[in-house]
Amino acid sequence: MVIEDITGIICQLRETAFPAIENLIKKYGADNPSKLFSADYKPFFIGNIKIKNPVISAPMAGISDNTYRIFARYFGSSLLYSEMITSYGLFYGHEKSIKMTYATEFERPFTLQLFGSKPEIIASAAQMLEEKSEIIDINMGCPVPKVVKTGSGGALLRDEDLIRQIIKKVKQTIKKPLTVKLRLGWDFNSINIEKTALIAESEGADAIAVHARTVRQGYSGNAEYSHLRDLKKKLKIPVIISGDIDNPFKAYKLLNDTNCEGIMIGRAARGNPWIFAAILIGIILLDRNLFDENGADLEKKFKKDIDYFLNNDIKVKILILYLKSLIHFMEEEKAVKEFRKILAWAFRGIRNINDIKKDFFEINNFKEAEKIMDSLIGM
């Protein structure tokens, strides 16, 4: 099949989604909804790179590909990350690793996230990639066993001296801003986020992102933000909070309670790229006191309004464009297989979906996917 270029897909996305976004904003009495959504809101800088608003998409393995990033950017994410890339693969010229570094003009500002445990290799990989991104990030928090067992990712939180060596070496090697992704610590008996954050700052990191869990927790349990409330007082560099942030009310409260510059949206965005718009609009409306009600009822009402304006039919049209974008970047068969999980995430919890859901995992080409999507209209 012939797929339009990515510019055409984005134009269709604008025609499909933006009227709904504007109508949502208008309902709450905001003047000039187009400007409210696209203008800078509490911008900050990572090194010399301007970040237009606090809403940032998290790097996620197997998810944060070009299409995910383009849609996240369109819906308001101010900073995009690559999937986590092995510094060893880049250093030794592995094609798969190199391919993961590609980003389009629609994915800026763009951060390339590396992982590894050897300062010299990470620094060399960072230098190789410097011209491909605006920012280089080092993952020091990934809890995945196959990463941890190599001494990379979250394993580094058990070796503060090695953290220092890695950041120092990379900072000496590159000219682009450098950031570090951390967790609270290895486990609850070794919470060391204050130490690792101060090490990162002292060795020249331009910002940190902190997932508010320990490495041993993985993604279980709840994010524990209490450890971050005093962290910003001790750091001059920007701090971005990650973990369980899935609505504007939580995001707004965290930003105000911690004085951190940004919040990072991860798993809540799987199959749900419009969440960035919902969170950005929500925190701006809260900041400007444009909501009439207060409390838990307001949260339910705003969610209902999002579902009304960005209704199921619009989501179907957005997801068809998502699949077209996937096919633009990869072979149709592979794109459709990737799309199966996107559909499952996008329509989980939808009434009467179970009869159709089994068909999500049987689609093999665009026409079959389009037929399934047509059956979802009006549900």
- Helical/strand content category: alpha/beta
Secondary-structure element order, N to C = HHEEEHEEHHEHEHHEHEEHEHHHHHH
The CATH superfamily title of the largest domain: Aldolase class I
Shape: globular
- Average residue pLDDT: 92
Q: Class of the largest domain, according to the CATH hierarchy?
A: Alpha Beta
Regarding quaternary structure, what we see is: single chain
Our estimate of the beta-strand percent is 5-15%
**Domains, number:** 2
- CATH-defined topology of the largest domain: TIM Barrel
Task: Report the count of strand segments.
Answer: 11
* Regions with little confidence, pLDDT below 50 for 5+ residues: none
Could you give a short account of the major beta sheet? 9 strands, parallel
Radius of gyration, rounded?
21 Å
- Give the number of helices: 16
Structure in a nutshell:
By secondary structure, the protein is α/β, with parallel strands linked by helices. 46% of the residues lie in helices and 11% in strands.
